[in-house]
Amino acid sequence: MKTVYNRQKILQICLFLVVFVIIGRLFWLQVIDSDYKDFARNNAMRYMVQYPPRGEVYDRNGEFLVQSTESYDLMVIPRDVEPFDTVDLANTLGVTAEEIRKALDKARRYSKRRPSMIFKQLSKEVKLKLDERHPVGFYTQYRTSRTYPRKIAGNLLGYINEVDEATIKRDPYYRMGDYIGKSGIEKSYEKYLRGRKGVKVELVDVYGMPQGSYADGRYDTLPVPGRAITCTIDAGLQQLAEELMAGKVGSVVAIEPATGEILVMASSPSYDPDKLVGRDLGNNYMELLRNRRHPLFNRAVMSRYPPGSTFKVVNGLIGMQEGVTLPGDLHPCHNGYTIGRGVKCHSHLSPLNLVQATANSCNAYFCYVLRDILDNRAYGGITRGGFDRWREYVKSFGFGRKLESDFWDELAGYVPTSEFYDRRYRGSWNSLTVISLAIGQGELGVTPLQLANLGATIANRGYYYIPHVVKKIAGLDSIDARFYEKNYTQVDPKHFEPIVEGMYQAVNVAGTATRFAVPGLDICGKTGTAQNPNGADHSTFLCFAPRDNPKIVVSVYVEHGRFGATAAAPIASLLVEQYLTDTIRRPEMMQQIKEMNIAYPMYDKRGK
Amino acid sequence: MTNEVNKGGGGRLFASDIDWWTVGIYVLMVFFGWLNIYAAVYNEEQAGIFDLSQRYGMQMLWIGIGFFLAISILLIDGKYWHMLAYPFYFAMLGVMLFVLLFGREINGAKAWLVVGPVQIQPAEFMKFVTALALARYMSAYNFDLHSGRALYYIGLIIGIPVLLILAQNDTGSALVFAAFFLMLYREGFGSGLYVVVLMLIFLFIISFLLEPLPILFIVLLLCLTAQGAVNRNWRDTLRYFALVLLLGIVLFVALTFLGTTVSLYHAMLGGVALSVPWLVRYAVRRHVPNLWQFALLFAGAVLFTGVVDYVFNNVLQVHQQKRILDLLGIENDPHGWSYNVIQSKIAIGSGGFLGKGFLGGTQTRFSFVPEQSTDFIFCTVGEEWGFVGSLGVVLLFLFLILRLMRMGERQKEPFGRIYCYSVAAIFFMHFVINIGMTVGLFPVVGIPLPFFSYGGSSLMAFTILLFVAVRIDASQYDESARKLL
């Protein structure tokens, strides 16, 4: 039976072939092609993000500046939605039925199967009401939202909002709908405040109904709450500063010189940080953005002001270090500096020494000083090193560069370079060309923070700590090491005493700010009246107190506030008094300052 | 022939006569199958394995009854089956007719007989009795497979149940009856038929998958290869192929130059037509009389693909077209017809090499695959036991089928051989169609995987099918041993 034997073999061969094909297919599906594992995961697992509460922010005395409160986002899975009472839901949420319909449509367009957030930051009460009604297809998701008990320091604290597309692309931590700090401390310390999201892997069946946790929660992670941050701000002082700055545009920065801790950082006009929370964030944000006085612009670290007379002390210090100025050197003032185009000055005694010149803010004196520095033959004159040397000194005070504070939006300001003048004057310029630098005018641009830092440097007699706004991060032993380092300027500490004396006399003996002395507080200060092309002079005042072992440095900059003594000095003086004595013994002065309104045609002339 | 040794009558069973390999594979399959049913319907609340409200509980009961049946069959003399073949066959036909008239419709198939709480699907048992009847008929003394009469009766024995099952709207079960053609092939049925059928299936599939021009070349090459193999004139065959190509291209270029547009396909067809004189001349000169057969084969194949195209476009309904396109992987509709297959492939594919472990399958437990405990039980195997488990199941089936074939071959009587081969073929069909559909190699046809799928009827039927074979084998062995004495 040869044929039958063959047939049996053929059948067997066919059987083996078929089995081989099936095994090959199984091997392909199960071992080689990994797509099916992903499909299965998408099929059966739902990754539920567990949001951590965001870290809270305290002021230096442990008072709440930012609180995290429970809030809930209303999520919807369009596919699962069953007919519901739209009007009732609208009433519960406090929106119109039309809005709900629109939100649902949008969610449906995004995905029928995936959850979309349709209303955000609902209060706990609304959430409870929703739970009672329990509309099918909707669920609420725990989030935190921010509240600001003191309603101060909007720009300093910053705000949070949903992450944008670009950030999501850059940082894999963030997912659509996450909140992220957008400015201020919220942004600088985002990494600590946000905590860590947890994830709960839930199994879902073919209908999308949850079927319990995956692998008994072995792959779940708990959310790690954000770290609380204690900042260096003194809430009471900050509030007073903001009140004093009301009606004025400008900025106040106060620093504790012994540590570099920022006690006050007020940018005026400010805004109520509660406005940038919740459902109205978008509208309020646009409103603030449209405000011509730019309340969202943190002037304390971002604006570039001419420093004015406060800068004279820097030149004085450089002069002494260079040996071209001695504290006893006398220079005449003929109602100004008469060489070249000349620099005007107010009338005062003449000649003056360095201390008197500082106290009286004599323009002419510092013109002599600057020219002596710049034209020092030892360095071959101004264009061959003299200017650059001066610039190096100035930079060592923290001007013309970022201070590396913990403000993400800090700007560098500007100190001109010799190349800049070479370009501008086609190489033909000398110390007289740049004489306005002597009195803090000209091409200089500084931020109020840099000015305050100058104050701290003088208060410390020669060094500063990088100003910073965070004192402690919960759970961490210390903040960044750079904030604990003394930064010396290129001027030897021994040269600072005459300047301190001058600033002391300016307030307490015979100078530009004697009206704002407070007995017993030994305020040392320097007024500044900065000319600018936009309108009236800027009023600035830089002071520290007490003279020995200073506790506070205040730098006030009031745009177009005229003389330093008009607007800035009283504000600084009141703040020092409040900080050191905890009381204000000059209520009428405080009242007057609070009510002082400065007209800003340059901001307000168009529109509102 | 007289046997004094045999005191207990002709049906005495010796344990050593039983093919324990087959029994072992059976037990292994049944329990592994039960584990997978348990996994497929498992939920935390009801975990008692004998809970009759759950499928695994019921299946356990069926397994118990199955064992009882198996032992009973082993204890009954194997010779009775020869005797009972026709009565059983006709009785089952009666039951089938009854079901067709009074049965219950489940999942679109009016194939269920409901007796109290038990639902029986007689079609499962129909395979068994048909196998018996065929074995009986074909083992008759005067049986001649190649007589017209034999063909007629075989056609009837297979055809009547198939028609009844088709009338019940149970296409899957009807398809399984094709298994008997494998048995018939073993018994010496004309092999030409199988070649033609395979070729038609091949042509049918490629007529969808390929453009006309490649089909033309494939058919041409196949015919030429077959011709070359039969007549052993490879060099002339190659020359002829070159000639056809040349004629086709010349025709194409010439017609293009004359300004009439003609497709390359038609040009090549023309080339083939123009080559006919050479072909005739060659056939006459070299005395190759069978050339016309191959010419006819070629013409028929080309015509067939054309007809398939025409029928598909002009006769079939849109949904039928879709289904065919879907089967062939040309179109996909993940939410409609191919949902099962996609989910099934996901479940199996996600198992990986070692699987997710018993009760660890996510696709399995959350019913992503419809019909998971019945027709798609292999998904559970694939997901929870991985490639290793799937391979194990496939190999178990391979061994079972090989074993049955071997049992058939060692039968002295044609009855036993035919029956064993029928059983092997039935298992083969179920195995290939069921696993083939779960891995996307075969269209979704609702038939169970023997011993794995949930269902009393199928488990009973397969148990009976298998153990009758084991019993016949054992008694045959027993008898032959006694004959030797």
Treating each run of at least 4 consecutive H or I residues as one helix, how many helices of chain A? 22
The helix content of chain A is: 25-40%
Amount of beta strand of chain B = under 5%
Provide the CATH architecture of the largest domain in chain A.
3-Layer(aba) Sandwich
Count of helical stretches of chain B: 19
User: Any idea what the shape of chain A is?
Assistant: elongated
Strand order of the largest sheet of chain B: 1-2-3
Provide the number of structural domains of chain A.
2
Structural class of chain A: alpha+beta
Radius of gyration of chain A: 33 Å
How would you characterize the overall build of this protein?
The complex is a heterodimer of chains A (608) and B (485). By secondary structure, chain A is of the alpha+beta class. Chain A has 2 domains: 46-231, Penicillin-binding protein 2a (Domain 2), CATH 3.90.1310; 235-271 and 297-604, 3-Layer(aba) Sandwich (Beta-lactamase), CATH 3.40.710.10. Helix content of chain A is 36%, strand content 18%. Chain A has 22 helices and 20 strands. In chain A, a hairpin with a 5-residue loop joins strand 2 and strand 3 (64-76). In chain A, helix 3 packs across helix 4 (97-110), helix 13 packs across helix 15 and helix 14 (354-360) crosses helix 19 (496-508). The radius of gyration of chain A is 33 Å and the shape is elongated. The mean pLDDT of chain A is 79. Mean pLDDT of chain B is 82; it is low at 1-9 and 481-485. Chain B is 70% helix and 3% strand. Chain B has a 3-stranded antiparallel beta sheet, with helices on one face. Chain B has 2 domains: 15-189 and 338-484, no CATH class; 196-315, no CATH class. The relative contact order of chain B is 0.14. The interface between A and B is large, with 36 and 43 residues.
